Amino acid sequence: MFYNNKEREIRIFDTTLRDGEQTPGVSLSIDEKIKIASQLDSLNVDAIEVGFPSSSKGEMDSAKKIIKENFDSNICGLARAKKTDIDACLEAGVDTIHLFISTSDIQLKHTIKKSKDEVKEIITDQITYLKDHDVNCLFSAMDATRTDIEFLIDVYKKAEQAGADTINVPDTVGIATPHSMGQLIKKISNEISIPIDIHCHNDFGLAVANSLHGVEFGAKQVQVTVNGVGERAGNASLQQVVMGIECLLNLKTNIETEKLYETSKIVERLTGIQILPNTPIIGDNAFSHESGIHAQGVISDSETFEPGIMTPEMVGHKRRIVPGKHVGRHAVRNMLLDAGLKPNEKELNEIVSRVKDLGDKGKKVTDVDLYTIAEVVMNSISKEVIDLQELAVMTGNQMTPTASIKAKIKGKEKRASDIGVGPVDAAINAAQSLIDEFPDISLKTFKVEAITGGSDAIAEIIIEVEDDEGRSVTARSESEDIVMASVDALISGMNQLMIKRKKQK
Predict the structure, then answer these.
(1) Domain range 11-271, CATH class
(2) Do 231 and 142 contact (CB within 8 A), yes or no?
(3) How confident is the model at residue 482 (pLDDT cuts 50, 70, 90)?
(4) What is the second-level CATH architecture of the domain 386-504?
(5) Dist CA 320 CA 304 (whole Å)
(6) pLDDT: is 397 or 243 the higher one?
């Protein structure tokens, strides 16, 4: 279709703050919305849908405050085909109004209770009213993929005649296939001259594929959300759509792709929707390799077991070789050399054997496990920089959780205390306060898993710490005391990271 047309630029319309916030359980404060909008603007998305101004005072206030930030991205507000909704968007001061009305038979009957003729009349009246106020109009026929095609094209023609600037084709309930979406966009593009925008939901896991196929057949703008958040199974993922457009379709976007990973992490933190490790592009495992054959190939040439047309650096991610029961000698040697450890052949064989044994027992093998095994085998245990002495936590329903900690840092005793939203958070904050003389080291990830049942369950804590030069290590601790395990894992990780840095330098 449009392969290799490098001059064709696809606009990216982000709806994380509108459709994304409709994810069950997600509710963003105004400050959180501004943080996400700022990151999206930095990412250079073409348009940001900031919400539904007529739906609540909070939505109106957040829209106004985002607009006051004077971002470069076009700011869009959602509106039903009603003057009150349009007026709310105008009051907020948006650049574009996303006007929508249901068009499928089932929604005409059960949602808006209007006839097809009434819908066409409403479209003409409301778009005319909107354009009288000199605002850009994006018109959406809701549930387009379940709408009779002749009526749908008639609706879009009415919208174009009334002055709409762009029409949106939404797969509202996610029932399209790539082939059907492509054919639909082709038919519509043969009938109207204004740009086509697509909005795909992920109910069958096809949102990204449908979006890309729509672009192949002529869509000029794609609606997406960061991490694919959204109602039900979510929307098309911004990261996957953008990299698909640029790397697979060989087309252009304005996105600064090296900021995709950091954008993903910000939205993950603020929404509380955790990214699965195997999530394409931005998951922890997206560029990770354990298998001996894969790791050896990647170390030699990354294109042996990676796409090649997409690298971790392109999306702001990092390639990792991880230890485990499938790991090979070549990978282990390289991981140890990166940490300043140089085992001989006999020592390397023993280290690999012990790592595989640990993996065979069902354990996740962390970087710290690998370094500890290597140092034991090589008889070169490094002296710890931080030695934990005492930890105390106070909590209750009438007090703020508070933790105090004592440790020796480079042989000198030091104490610190801090508060948190819970005992674990307070303990971690206290530990980080204790080691504030290492400001270039930060806690990157923190995961908790119960590995036994009952009130005395043993918890496994897995953390990752990183320094300002991109070095990182993972560490693990297990205990029935989740607070103690958390601090042990953090300090273990920091010790290993500082040892790694010292040996590399």
Answers:
(1) alpha beta
(2) no
(3) confident
(4) 2-Layer Sandwich (3.30)
(5) 15
(6) 243
